[in-house]
Amino acid sequence: MNPFLIKGYISPLFFCNRVKESEMLISAIRNNQDITLFGLRRYGKSALIHHVFHQLQKEYVCVYADIWGTSSIEEFTKELVNGLISSEVFAKQKTTTKLFNLLKSLGASFSIGTDGLPTVDVIFNSRNQQFKSLEELFNFLNQLEIPILFAIDEFQEIKKYDNNVPFEGKLRSLIQQSNNTVFIFSGSEHHLLNELFNEYSRPFYQSTRMVSIGKIDKGDYHAFIAGKFKKVKKDINPEIIDYILEISHLHTYYVQAMANFVYGQEKTPSSISEFDALYREYILEKHVFYSELPERLTKQQFSVLKGIAKTRLVESPTSASFMEISRIRSASSMHRAINSLLDKQLIIKEEGKLRLYDVFLEHYLKFVL
Ligand SMILES: Nc1ncnc2c1ncn2[C@@H]1O[C@H](COP(=O)(O)OP(=O)(O)OP(=O)(O)O)[C@@H](O)[C@H]1O
Ligand SMILES: [Mg+2]
User: Fold this and answer.
1) What's this model's pTM, rounded to 2 decimal places?
2) Which of 2, 18, 42 to mutate to test the pocket of ligand 1 (most atoms within 8 A of CB)?
3) Exposed end of the chain (fewer CB within 10 Å): N or C?
């Protein structure tokens, strides 16, 4: 099996570092503090949540709900209930009847899967009873008398619901009344989470511990990758590992994907130039994802995007040299282009420098230029 996972979580064996982050989370959880976990896309928030679950599974019933793509309170509740159903709570015989009662009282339609577990399809609620099923869910959690760790991933989605401020207030009060449940709210849209948790006028104001995750230490990642090759007696040139860590900006998913790619080669490349030749093919295969990009951007935006890809990291976009690389004449056009690329999340500012958010797109643009 390829030890470099590019989705999901298996066990600590396939997980690199995050020691401090895990300790912080675990200590907050044991002290009954709710947590907001923030990090850029694909840095490893969801995997970290599962890593923490793995370490706390004897102490807590761990529940994971991903609310990405939900657009209403009903859908939100449905995902939470589905998370609950797929957790260990169901394995506890005492809770089974309670859970079926909960499903009935939610007025939910559910189907039983091949694993014998129900999945909620829809929750039927009249408009003025929107909060009712959420209350029932929290009542259910409160009666359980077992410690529960409840992670709600992609939490920023709740900002997109109609009626979101009264909903936040309701959710906040339900959360505050539950004594046996600790919550992790996780997401990647910094400004949205920031508004939710740090705006004075909002219900969640400063109600949770903020934990952010960034890059994994370079030396630790190097040792992790080298160790996986060594374990199966595959040779790998350490320069190639350094090169991967460099060109991936240490962005977790891309490190994993590149390491997975090298590991999967029948004959491991022995030099950086051999690696590059293989990697080029791998990146060019992605043209299906990227070929329509120029149509979504103005000429200037695309030109600046290419300029950033070519430069890799841009400290000062209005410097003469960068203006020339990206063929932009005025500082104000440059500012406009940068702001729209930031808005579209095609680029990010990291440690004061601009780069492409999608590392593969950076490499793709570099290869096709
Ligand atoms: N510490 C780690 N060690 C090894 N692999 C990791 C680590 N953290 C994450 N990964 C892997 O990196 C990939 C991306 O991680 P994950 O999906 O958790 O990121 P995310 O921040 O939740 O992304 P998104 O914002 O898209 O939800 C996954 O394949 C995961 O298995
Ligand atoms: Mg995630």
Assistant:
1) 0.93
2) 42
3) N
